Amino acid sequence: MKSSILFLGLGLSLATANAQEQNPIEVPAEIEKIFIPQGFDDNDNVEVVLHGKFPNTCYQVGNTEAKVDPQARTVTVSATSYKYPGAFCIQSVTPFLQTVKLGMIPEGNYQVVYSKNQQVRNSLEVSRRKTESPDDYLYATVENASIDVNFESGKQALKIQGHFPYFFLGCMVLKEVRVLKNPTDVLVVQPIAEVVTDEAVCATQPDDRSFEYTSGLAEPFQGEGLLHVRTLHGNSLNRYIEIK
Questions:
Q1: Which residue among 85, 169, 185, 243 has its CA within the 20 to 30 Å range from the CA of 105?
Q2: Domain range holding 63?
């Protein structure tokens, strides 16, 4: 009887230890670069995007934090990753992005520095607001974005997809899509929309208000970078791109 109790206790101890080993460990993220989309004003929720690479599939993105010093014109950002010990890991280098919201900060030029590695830094420029509204334009609700490459011709095309919000009167349509390379490693996409009341135009939309837009890029993108798409309500969609 004592032996049975002893083995049962040992089994529970081992099970508890194994369960504890499976708990994820929060570690500082290995950040290689800070992408900074340009075009933010002092009434925007400014954001920067951290880029790194996981060594295997046992990592996931964690939390982010930012400390803004308006007097020194510096922004110190930090980020963590979750490491899952004891799990089966596929050895595959996987790029990842972590978006850091800075909130509304005064206009000026800032140095954005990663706390774990002071060599990882970039410049951020915040302009004076041109309007009291959060955005200069009404943006579409983009849910996915990519750069399609024709490797035979070398031509590249921007593709965005999403669903327009439902309106009781009228509907939303894409008016214009602007693509700016600013800076050189960031493609800023502005899907400018408008609300129309033309029933004939609205009748052409699918019942689920889905939309898709594809357009060739005037200037091909090369290397590693960020595809940054402005969306409705001051939000954005960020995608890592690598074109060799």
A1: 185
A2: 25-126
Alpha-carbon distance 102 to 100, whole Å? 6
Contact yes or no for 189/179 (Cβ under 8 A)? yes
**CA–CA dist 158, 135 (Å, integer):** 22
The alpha carbon of residue 182 and the mean position of all alpha carbons in its chain are separated, in whole angstroms, by 16
pLDDT computed for residue 10 by the predictor: 43
Residues β-bridged to residue 149: 156
58, 59, 143, 183 from 88: Cα distances, Å: 7, 11, 32, 39
Q: What span, in angstroms and rounded, lies between the C-alpha atoms of 209 and 172?
A: 9
Maximum C-alpha span of the chain: 83
- Is residue 30 within 8 Å of 81, Cβ to Cβ? yes
Assess whether pLDDT exceeds 50 at residue 19.
no
Q: Model's pTM, two decimal places?
A: 0.86
Whether residues 88 and 152 share a domain: the answer is no
Total number of domains constituting the chain: 2
Residues 21-41 pLDDT 10s = 578 999 999 999 999 998 899
Q: Of the residues 92, 126, 160, which one is the last residue of a structural domain?
A: 126
E strand segments, the chain: 25-28, 31-35, 46-54, 59-69, 74-83, 94-103, 108-114, 117-126, 142-149, 156-163, 171-181, 186-196, 210-216, 223-230, 236-243
Q: Is residue 19 part of a domain?
A: no
For 173-215, the pLDDT digits (tens) are 999 999 999 778 999 999 999 999 999 999 999 999 999 999 9
Same domain, 109 and 154: no
